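User: For a benchmark we're assembling, each entry needs the component sequences followed by a predicted structure for the full assembly. Here are entry 17's components. Please fill in the structure.
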Amino acid sequence: MARKVSLFVPCFVDQLQPQVAVDAVKVLRRVGCEVDFLPDQTCCGQPAFNTGFWDEARPCAERFLRVFKDAETIVSPSGSCTTMVRAFFPELMASGALHDEAVALGKRTFELSEFLVRQMGLTDVGASFAHTVTYHASCHGLRELKLRDEPLQLLRGVKGLKLVDMLRFDECCGFGGTFATKFESISVAMGDSKADNIAVTGAEYVTAIDPSCLMHVQGILGRRKDRARAIHLASILASEA
Amino acid sequence: MSSAAEQFLRDAATKSADLVHREIIRRNMDSYEAAHQRGRSRIKNWEAARRRCQEIKREAIEHLDKYLLQFEEKVIAHGGHVFWAANGDEACAYIKDLAVSRNVRTVVKSKSMVTEEIHLSPVLEKVGIKVWETDLGEFIVQLRNEPPYHIVTPAMHLNRQQIRELFREKLGEDIADADPQKLVALARRKLREAFFAAEMGISGANFLVADSGAIAISTNEGNGRLSTSLPRIHVAVTGIEKIVPRLEDLGTLWPVLATSGTGQPITTYSTLIGGPRRPSEADGPEEFHVVLLDNGRSSLLANAEEREVLTCIRCGACLNICPVYRNIGGHTYNTTYQGPIGSVLTPHLRGNDFQHLAQASSLCGACSSVCPVNINLHHHLLHNRRDAAASGNAKASERAQFRLWRTAMLHPGLYRLGGWMMRRSLRLLYGMGLAGTVFDPMRAWSRKRTPMPLPAKSFRTRWKEGLEKEEQGRGQVGNK
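Assistant: Structure for entry 17:
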């Protein structure tokens, strides 16, 4: 029986990088999932939560619980937004009646690579991508969801893909949500350090599981007119020969 | 925005664009990192060691009252004195009065961040006492008349050429080739004179051992031992949170502190001091004083959510791994304690003027991943942000912005419309070549990054129109 999956598309993916979600759908369908998208979903509340406005974030989180109430399995092409749901919803609702529901929701919400490897037991999703690729470990995925090997396992399963190691692959790219604009100079300096490390690898593409990090990295690479381009893991996995 | 926040923004912009600084720090951090990694691999089970240190320090903090009194009792029994200072002024006054009443003319200090916290040296200098910093790094920053750049390595931001220049100017000797050994020898010669002249030695303490009434000091240059044994008076100044229950706890804490601080298996000099010289002993001070500083710590203790911040052993590992620290450097923080631990701690110790520090983080969590006592530093930054917003110190415009944002997120129709309008207007603006200019509301993004992608259709629109139909029309998938 096909596994039913409800797609959680973070607001900035919906608005700015829709192709990432389109590619996630393609991959999930290819591995036999039945994919649904609940059009009532908006934002999980992370921007407000991370900025300290928990009272503004809480109603968004509560709304998220209502929208996804009946979803068996929720999958998102973002480690950061998955972290918001799994790690921070329970804290945000610590004192409320919805706490247990939030914990339960977190347990059935997965980041895409986590879902494919840990839930579906797959490392080869039938993708083909004949390029040199280096991997950046996004902070939330790595340190909150403990996704260290899963994305790499999937990349190793892609036909034609040459994976090259990056120095400080687990150092933050400097995005950090509103940090990127509030502390533009620090964020850009961190992005430049990341771009330097990417350049050394000689890779054509840098990939990650978080669209927000990649948008920042691409912004920096673009300004520098560097060779490498940022691409989401879902887009690599969606590629076929 | 507080003036401290504005200053921070200015300094951060200057420092993060300073490529010479970035290179010095990168080189120093690279060598630290290699040593740290080697150090951790020497410990059979690093994670178990961290957990043990966390347990020890948590136990100490949870029963701080009991252990501090036990410590005090032992110190007094050994013939020492204990002074409880509610704040920095009380601590400074006690030490100054003690020095004046004992006719102290010269003080030697071994490294202590708490004396930086209470600004002790200026107080002593004001009454005509000469104060020597005897840790080499501290000696260097003292000559430069600046605060320590880093809680463990105070002069990390300088290269040997800069130190040669400094010594030439301030000590009157030019070490022609800036040979590190010769530079050190020069500092040592000067400091020996100070050690023999000083009537009072002031130290910090890495740990206060409750069951034996001893202070534990870890140093690498031997200056700690000279400062605490040659002068006739020894004053140890330390925060009340430095307590550990038992002497045997140091068996885990000492190697873990050394590993996290510098990558050493154990620091070169690990010293335990239990009181003044006893009748049968050949050396040591005639008087031994311990100043236990509160200065905001007990109110942090009262806060169950943030209490674990007091378990910090000041190893500096969170500074070393922090990508923000690496780019803006220690002085930009303008605090005694820099880096992640400083951003977490300072608003609790010094109030609302330092709330901006919690915002100056990408929340990457690298700090928490290396903390030897498992303090969840980046989550505490989140808490500080929450407290700042709740305290009403948040910018009114930002609050209004998030209220508006919330309204949109609670109404999918509004969200769709808002998103469409934003993309549409920015596309128009960028089409006119205005990205990154004053007309661009997203210029803080697009001044130094290529503009964000602005697709004509959102995902939900494409989903509604049917992805299958799209698939048939296009063969290739890419990140467009």
